[in-house]
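Researcher: Can you fold this with 3,4-dihydroxyphenylalanine in place?
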Amino acid sequence: MNDDGQKRDAPATPHASRLTPDDPVDSVVAAFREEAGRGVSSRSDFERLKGRYLGREKGLVPALFAGIRDVPPEGRAAFGARANAAKKEIEEAVALLSQALERREVEARQAAEAVDVTLPGRRARAGGLHPVTIVRRRIEQIFLRMGYSIADGPELENDRHNFEALNFPPEHPARDSQDSFFVDRKAASPLLLRTHTSPVQIRELARRGAPLRVIAPGRVYRNESVDATHAAVFHQVEGLVVERGISMADLKGTIEEFFAALFGPETKARFIPTFFPFVEPGADVAASCIFCKGRGCAKCKQSGWIELAGAGAVHPNVLTACGVDPEEYTGFAFGLGLDRVAMLLYGFPDLRLLLEGDERFLSQFASEA
Ligand code: DAH
């Protein structure tokens, strides 16, 4: 015995010594038994074995029959009978080997394809609403409760609604603050992607007249260089109230109410005078920082305030452009940056996350809706 437990001198064909070298039938049968006894490990192994013995061209069994010619006539019948018996034995053994091989193949296939029915199933993950959609819906609910209706306008706007009727005269420098994507400059009123939701003020007021109380959420476009706090595509919510006797006090009260509903009851609103052509007076509106409650922190750059909106009393020229008599009606308007509100509420640092569609970011909001 050597190391691996085999007899070193075992002859390759143990029965070789018992073969009658002169008898081809015996030697073919003996060789076959020996080989078949070792079994076949694969389909190709089997095909080689089968071919070697039964192959039509070079098989050892057909060769036996071809050799009948060389047998003396008186021995041919017996030789033929023995050759036939050998052929039958070999064919039957080959058939059995084939069946056994097939069984093994089926078993192997089944083992490979086996399903472990005790494994827990893979859950299909439910999608969720986009954070901007969640915030938009919350804001809509707040204003619906205050008696507003929700309006919509086209994202492909014309110059008349986006600028002119909002009291931006042609060539007025205030247009520079809203660098636009023009689509057709040659149209009677040039076409552009709307730079703010304020044109919906014009469309709604011209269509429905006063009194009017609407908000208009939507997507807007500016030719901005993109960074963590600037995007070329973002969202606003416009608000417009035109009724008899409306004043800046109504605007302040409304914004305070809105901030309290969205950010919490202790939230304050701050108005700083500024210029927008379509309001007079106009204001930049900030909310007291929801992180430090106005004491000053990194999020609000130590100011205690976070700027979120522009607002003001509707300019008489806007009312006139919409066919509303400014002597009879007054109003207020505001425009709120929706993406910034989402950033604030969910505390993420980069506006671009809202546009990238990264599932790792978006899935964090799936349970919110
Ligand atoms: N449309 C302005 C902008 O996008 C924001 C704005 C300011 C809207 C004042 C208003 C408003 O309705 O009264 O910069």
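Model: Folded with 3,4-dihydroxyphenylalanine in place. Confidence is low (pLDDT under 50) at residues 5-20.
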